[in-house]
Queue: 4 jobs
Job 1
Amino acid sequence: MFNPTISEEQSQLLETARKFAVERIIPVAHEYDETEKFPTELFREAWELGLMNVELPEAYGGLGLSTLDGCLIAEELGYGCAGIETSIMCNHLGALPLMVGGSEEQKDKWLGRLSEDFEFISYACSEPDAGSDVAGMKAKLTKKEGGGWILNGQKRWITNASHAGIYTGFATIDPALKHKGITAFVVDRNAKGVSVGKKEKKLGQRASDTADVLFEDVEIPDEQILGEPGKGFYIAMEVFDKSRPMIGACAAGLIRRCLDESCKYALERKTFGVPIGNHQAIQMILADMAISYEASRLMYMKAAWEVDAGKKRTLTSSLAKCFSADAAVKAATDAVQVFGGYGYTREYPVEKLYRDAKLLQIYEGTSQVQRMVIARGLLRGA
C-alpha cells in the first residue's frame, strides 16, 4: 500500500539535495539564466555528490536508488532552478531506454560509462514534425546487407545535446508501419555522421542546453539496437511512464519555491499601512499555492511508488505530470501577481520562475497529450 512516509535514508538524501540547491544552485541560477551559459562545473559537482544518475543499477556502477528517491531529489533541485534540474535529471531519461530495453552487454557498456566518469547521455525522440506524435517520426534506419543499419534523420528539442557523449534515440524501419516500425538505438557522439545543430534560444530554463541532433549516414551496428527492431515504440512509452513522475517532482519544487518567495515578500511589502499578507486577496493566493504543492507532491510520490512497485502506472504518471505542471504555471503566475510590478522585473526571482514553469507543460508530452492519455485510460478501464 502506498505510504508517503519518508525514511531516514531518504531524509539524508533530501538534505544533501536541499543543501546543494540552496548553497550552490540558487546563488548562481540568475546569472546562468541571464547569460544562457551551460554550468558544466556545477553539473560535475552534482555528479560527484551522487545527485546525477541516481537510478542506475548497482550492477553497472550506479547507486541503485528508487524512482521515488530520484523524484525527491528532483523536487529539491527544481526548487533551486528548473533548468539546472532538467539537465541534471535528464541523464536519467537518456539512460532509461537502455534500462528498459537494453541487453546486459549494452547496459554494462553504456551505463557503465555514466558511472565511471562525468558524462551526459541525451534522449533523442522528438523531431521537427513529430513531437507528441511519436509514431509519425521520419528518422530512418535502413538495414545493410551483411548486418548493421544506416541511420538518417533529425532530432529536435534534445536536452543536453551539445554536451552529451551518448545518445539514445528512436527511428523507423518503415514509416508505413507507424508505431510498429519504431526502433530504439544507442550511438556515440563521436560516431561518423553525428552532429549537433545550433543551441535554441528559449523563454525559460536557459541554463539547460537544447539543440538538434543530426544523423547523416550513421552506421549503427546490430549490437547498438535496443530490443527488437520494430518494438521501440513500447520502449518509448515505458520510458515516459517511468520519467513523467520526475517532471511532477520538479513542478512541486517550483511551486514550493513560489510559495516561499511569495510568503516572504507578503510579510515585507506593505500597502495601506500593513503587510500585504494581511489582505485576504493575497492570503487566498498563498493558500492555493500550498494546496497545489501538497497535492502535486502526493501525486508524484504515488506515481513513483507505483513505478517502484512494478504496477501499471501510465494513468498515474500522466495524472501527476499534468496536474503538477499546470499547477506550477498557475503558482508562478500568481507569484508574479503577489509581487506586482516588481514581479515583472528580473530583479526578483519570480519572473524567472514564471518563465521556467511553462516548459513543464510541454516537454515529455504536453498537458493536452496527458489529458488524452488519461481519458483513454479511463475509457479502457485502466
Job 2
Amino acid sequence: RLLILLFVCASVRIHLSFLSGNAFVVSLALADLVVALYPYPLVLTAIFHDGWIAGYIHCQISGFLMGLSVIGSIFNITGIAINRYCYICHSLKYDRLFSSSNTMCYVVLVWALTILAIVPNWFVESLQYDPRVYSCTFAQSVSSLYTIAVVVVHFVLPISIVTYCYLRIWILVIQVRRRVKPDSRPKVKPHDLRNFLTMFVVFVLFAVCWAPLNLIGLAVALDSGLSRAVPEWLFTASYFMAYFNSCLNAVVYGALNHNFRKEYKRIV
C-alpha cells in the first residue's frame, strides 16, 4: 500500500491532462495506506494473542480507520470514474470543471463525505471486535436498517455511478471506432484509453472483491436468522477477499500503465 503511494507520487511526469485524475489516484492510495498504519498492527497482535488485548478505545479507533479506508476507497474510485467520464465524454468542459483548485475541492469533499458516512457507526455502536477475523470492524447484525443503509450508500450507489460513467465511456469509444469520417471523430487518444482501462480494471476488481461481503451483510440485514446460517469460513473468506483488493491495485498499475512500469524499474 505504501508502494502504491510512492509510485503514484513518483510518476508525475505524465501528460498534463491527467494531473487532476492523479489527485484522486493519490487520494485512493492514501485511503489504502490508512489501514496499514494503525489497524493492521493491532490485528496482528490479536492474531498472535488469539484475542483483542488493545482495549475498547483502540478497538473503536481501529474500526473507525478501517471504515475510513473502505469508504474512502470506494468514494475515490467514484471520483476517478466521474473524472474520466468528464475528460473523455465532455472534453470541452473538462478544464473548467477540473481545474487545479476545483480538483482539490473535490478531493476534500470526498473525504468530508467519507467521514460523514462513518460517524453514525459510533451512534449505533456497530464497531465491535469480531473474533472470526481478529478485527474491530462493522458488525452487520447490530441494526438491520443501518446495515441496509450502509450497503446501499457505501456500495450499491457508488458502484451504480461508476458503472454508468464507464458504460458511457465504452459507448463513446465504440462509436468513435465505427465512425466513417475521421475528421468528425472525437479525439480519444491511445494513452487516454490505456489510462481509462487501468482505472476500469481497478473498479472491476473492487466490485468483485467487495461484493461477497456486502451481499452477506445485506442478506443478514434482511433476515437476521441468516447470521447463524452463514458458514464462518465463508464470512472469513469474503472479509479477507475484500481487504486483499487494495493489494491488487499496485499490480494493476504496474501491468497496465507504462508510466508506472517505468517508475517501478527506476525505483527498483
Job 3
Amino acid sequence: MSARVDLALLGVRGSLPVRRSAGAGPSDDGHLVINGINAAIPRNPLSPYVLEGDQILLDGSSEDLGLDVSAIDRPAFYDLRTDSGTEYEKIAKLHGRDVLASTVMQTCIRYDPAQRCRFCTIEESLRAGATVAVKKPAELAEVAEAAVRLDGVKQMVMTTGTSAAGDRGAKHLARCVRAVKAVVPQLPIQVQCEPPGDLATLTELREAGAESIGIHIESLDDAVRAQWMPGKATVSIGEYRAAWAEAVRVFGRNQVSTYLLIGLGEDPDELVDGARELIEMGVYPFVVPFRPHPGSLAVDVDFAQAPRADVVEAVTRRVAKELTAAGMAGSDQKAGCAACGACSVLQNVGG
C-alpha cells in the first residue's frame, strides 16, 4: 500500500499515452492499471519513480516496486472528429481503462479568483484550447457511441462547472444524459453537480437515465471550506446534507458519492468521523489525497504541498474499514469516480 500512496502523491516519470493536463477534479495525471486497479498518477518530472515498460523503478535503481503495472493505450475514438470538425478528445476523455468522462460545461461562475476553489483548474483546459466550453448533447452521444464500439468503454461520468441558473447546471446534465442514453442505453452514467436549487431536479437526472450521482463537497469543515473554496462554501453543509439524503432516496444507497480531500487542513479524526456519518446516510465518501497541480491557485499563489503519505494511508485505511463494515464498495457503484477508483487508493484496501 505504501508504494501506491507514494505514487499518488509523488507521481511518476515516463511515457503515458492516456493523460490530461488540466480540468475539473485531479488532473495533470497519466492513467495506468496497477495491480488490476485503475490509477490516475500525477505526471511529475521531479518524481523519484520512473515508468519503464511494465515496471515502476526507483530512480537510479534497477529494482522495481513489485507492482503489476500497465499503461492505458490511446483510445481509437481520439482519432475521430464531429461533422463540424471538433476532435472527439475535446468532447470527452478516457479515464482509466474503460471510463468515458466529460465536463459538459467547462466554465464556472465560481472561477473568479475571489471565489475559485483553490485546487481547481476547470477553465485552464478551455483556455489552452484542449476542450470546448459547452458540450452539445448530440455530440456527446456521438462520442459515447464510438467509445463504446471502438474502445470497450463500460461507464461514463459527466460533471459540470456551476452555472448561474437555479439548477446550477444540473438541467444541462439531464439533457446530455438523455441524448447519450438514446444512442447507448446500456452505458451506465454518473452525473456530478452541486446541490441543485430545487431538489426535484435530482429526480429529473434519474429519470433522464443517470444511474448514480456525485455531489462533491471536498471538506466537511466550514473553516477549511471558507479557505479553500470560498464560492462553493456559500452553499451550506446543511444544503449538501439535504441533497445527499434526497439523492439516496432517488438513486439508492451507495449510488451517491462525495469527494473528501485529504490534506486541506481538516483534522484527520474529524474527516473520518464525517466519512462515517456519510456512510450511515448511504453516501460513499470518496477520500482522495489533495494533489497540487500547475494552474491552480493552490500552486501558483499558495505554494501548497501534498499531504504526508502516512496521513493519506491512515485515513484511507480507516475509511475503507468503515465502508467494509457497512457493506459498501466503490466497485458496487454503477458508474462514477468511486466505481473507477483511479484518483483514490480506497479500492487498494477494499473500500
Job 4
Amino acid sequence: MEKRALIIGASGIVGSNLADQLVTTGWHVSGLSRGRTAQPSAVEPVTADLTSPESVSRALAGRTFSHVFFAAWARQATEKDNIRVNGGMVRNVLDALGPAGGVSHAALVTGLKHYLGPFEAYATGAVPITPFREEQGRQPVENFYYEQEDRLFEAAERYGFGWSVHRPHTIIGFAVGNAMNMGVTLAVYATLCKAAGEPFVFPGSRAQWESLTDMTDARLLARHLEWAATSANARNEDFNVVNGDVFRWKWMWSRIADYFGVEAAPFDGETRPLEPRMQDAGPRWAGIAARFDLKEADLGRLASWWHTDADLGRPMEVLTDMTKSRKAGFLDYQSTPDAFFALFDRLKAERIIPR
C-alpha cells in the first residue's frame, strides 16, 4: 500500500523534520495548516482553519491518507481554552478522514507535561518519580494533552485505525517561527552575549543546573514516529522518546559557550530568567542581522524566551525512561551535544545566526 502521510504542523520543529524523514524514505507527504508559514518544498500544502470542522472537512474532501501525524498545537490563554481548541483540532481532522476508512494509523506528539502538568499548573502536584515511565499515567489536573489523547482514542475506536502517542522531552531541531525552540533560543542568546561582550549566564534553577536530564533531537523523533506508524509492536501504545544519553546543565552549559566563543558565567544559585532580561534585545538582534546579512531580523520568530525559562527553571529533576520503546524494537540513539552542534552548524549555514 502506498504510504500517504498527512502532517498537522508540517512547518514546525517536529513536522518539518518528520516531513524530511518521510520524503527521504519514499512517502507521499501533505501538510495541513492555515497556510501562514511556508512548508518544506516536498510537502503538498493543504490549507484549512483547524479549529473549524467545516473548513477542515472541505479541505480534506476527496483526499485519502494512510497515516496522520499531529505535530502542532495552538497556545491559548488558559488550560480550559487549550483543551477546547487543541482537542477540537484532533477531532476535526479525524472526523473528516475517518468515515472514508483509509486511515490505518494516527500518531499524536505531546510531551513531558503529561507527567509535569500544564504550564499554568506546572509541577504543582505530586510529580512522578524520575525517570518518567509511561505506566505512571496521568496527573489529576486539567491538561490538553489528555484531551487530545481522548479524542484520538475515541476516533480510533470509531473508525478502526491504530494509534500511537509520543512524548518527547525538550526538542532540539531546526525551525524558524516555532513557539517552543530551546536550541535556536540558546543560539540567539549566545550570539547576543558575544556581540555585547557579556557572559553567557545560565537562566535556570539550581535543580536544573545540578540534576540529570535528557533531550530529544527532532530527527530522532521523526524516526520514532515513522517506526511507530509502521511497526505492529507500537500499535495502540504510548511512548516516551529521548536521545538516549543523559547530562547535567552544569556540564553542557560550558560546551555550548565554547562553541560560540563566549564566557560561561559561574552559576551562583540564583535563577535569572531570559524573558525579563531580553526586553530590549529586539533592536540589538536587528542590528546583528543587518551587519551579518542574516535571513531573519525579527527576534520574535527565533527566540522563545518564555519556553526556555519554563524548561530551565523547573524546580525538580526531569528525566525520561525509554525502556518501553527499546523493548518494542526502537533502538535509535543520538548524542545530545552533537544534536546541539549540528543545529548550530545548520543555523550558520542557513544564515540564521552569524558564521
